[in-house]
Amino acid sequence: MPKTMETMDRAPRGNEQAGIDWWSAQSEQLRAYWLKHAEAFDPSAAGAWAAFKTAHDASERWADQDPVRMHSGLEFRGFEFSLQVYPGDDGWLGVQVIAQPPATGFNEGCTVGGDGAGRLRFGVNARIGAATLEWFAQDPHVPLYLEGLRLVLQPHQCEQLRTWLPRLGQTAVLAQRLATALNRRMGGDAPTLHYMNDFASGLAACVVLDGQDAVTAIASQLATHWAAKDAGLRTALQGPEIAALLETGRFAREQGATS
Questions:
Q1: Would you say 203 and 217 are in contact if contact means Cβ atoms under 8 Å apart?
Q2: In the chain, how many H helices and how many E strands?
Q3: Distance CA 154, CA 89 (A)
Q4: Strand 127-128 vs strand 110-113: parallel, antiparallel, or unpaired?
Q5: How far apart are CA 87 and CA 201, in angstroms?
Q6: Element at 111 (helix H, strand E)
Q7: pLDDT-based confidence at 2, cuts 50/70/90?
Q8: What is the mean pLDDT of residues 39-59?
Q9: How many Å apart are CA 96 and CA 115, to the nearest integer?
Q10: 191 has which bridge partners?
Q11: Count of Cβ atoms closer than 10 Å to residue 101 Cβ
Q12: Mean pLDDT of 7-17
């Protein structure tokens, strides 16, 4: 049995009490997880607490970094939970929560939600606190029914969400307009279900999230997305309406950055 931090002849000091409180709040799965991490130097509750603090302190490096670009969206990395937000060509956002090993006690994280395949779609109505996130959406078939998530995040994640969520919303709006214009130009043969939604979202993200101009954004998407093989899509992208939408999206991004 590992020794605990509670077996001492004096009153625990501040950090020791914090460790006792932390150990008492952990599930057996998480205790085993952190004991395993502490095994090499101190296989005890105190060692587990030290391993937890070391890992948590190391994660603070993310506070000085921007969120990571993932596909058409962003990942807001955190110690226990990470959040991936993906704009879709329906004008809404797909949200995926990644529970990291420090939250699950397993060697790998697990995910809830999806980038846009699920029925639930989010707007930008998230309630972001100092270290909390509440984000709910109406069920499209039962409007009185709300479904979503409540999370305790690291402060830097909440700050990043406040900064980037409006831009992610702009990306989704632009993606919807692009998809509509491309479908109209391509006519009834537009293979929307196969790749157009992903292509439009990625194109919008190049402009709103990455700050690319219309020509660069189109070129970068055609260079990396397999939909570039479709001659009809390449022709549709040459229309002035597409260029105008992209430049309008870039202008809105620049205006948002200066306001």
A1: yes
A2: 9, 8
A3: 30
A4: unpaired
A5: 6
A6: strand 110-113
A7: very low
A8: 88
A9: 6
A10: none
A11: 17
A12: 62
| Cross-strand bridge partners of residue 146 | 138
Q: Assess whether pLDDT exceeds 60 at residue 129.
A: yes
User: Cα–chain-centroid distance for residue 145?
Assistant: 24
CA gyration radius for the chain?
A: 23
Residues with Cβ within 8 Å of 134's Cβ and at least 6 positions away in sequence, in order, are 126, 127, 148, 149, 150
Helix (H, G, I), strand (E, B) or coil at 24: helix
| Overall residue count recorded for the chain in this entry | 259
Mean confidence (pLDDT) of the chain: 85
What distance in Å separates the CA atoms of residue 158 and residue 133, rounded to the nearest whole number?
Answer: 7
Report the alpha-carbon distance of residue 153 to residue 129 in Å, rounded: 9
Residue 68 near residue 75 (C-beta atoms within 8 A): yes
Instruction: Convert 88-151 into a string of H (helix), E (strand) and C (coil).
Output: CCCCCEEEEEEECHHHHCCCCCEEEECCCCCCCCECCCCEECCCEEEEEEECCCCCCCEEEEEE
Residue 253 and residue 255: Cα distance in Å, rounded? 5
Asked if residue 249 lies in contact with residue 204, where contact means CB atoms within 8 angstroms, the answer is: yes
Read off the tokens for 212: 């690319």
DSSP type of residue 188: G
Return the percentage of the chain with pLDDT > 90, whole number.
52
Q: Give one word for 41, left, alpha or beta, with left for phi > 0 and alpha for psi -120 to 50.
A: alpha
Q: How far is Cα 248 from Cα 257, in angstroms, rounded to an integer?
A: 14
- Confidence (pLDDT) at 183: 85
